[in-house]
Specification:
By secondary structure, this protein is an alpha/beta fold. The chain is built from three helices and eight strands. Strand 7, helix 3 and strand 8 form a beta-alpha-beta unit. It is globular, with a radius of gyration of 15 Å.
Amino acid sequence: MPVVIKSLNINGDLVSKMLCPEFQSEVSEADITLFQETHLLPDQHETLCIPRNYDVFSLPRKYKKLFKKPFGGVAAVVSHSLKAVWCKEISSPDIMVLSLNNSAYVINAYILPEYKDWSSFTDHDPFERLEQLVATLSSSGVPIYVLGDLNA
């Protein structure tokens, strides 16, 4: 049975959007819905209203300066039926890696436009990090799906 994946750059305010029944209906039509630019704070995903039988994984940006307005960040809402695991050890700011029962990797990435500065939330260029991640994962022989807003 095919896996349905949606990928949306929502440009912030994921909490309010998940309260909308129509938006939740869109999310529940997919097995995985990936979000970029969630603008969530750490642990704020725990307040999200998500469809029944789904899990939420969130990777907000961590800033070096306190009280900075949140930007960026990625999240995934995943059906329980997939038994997805968030690979935290190989994920990085704005790049989330999910393993689907060891049969595929799904990468949810938000890559800033080239002219934007990423040094306020990470020490490594996110695009270079994504390249290295894909190269490393490809050696496993497991299919890799890269989705997101890559500002190509």
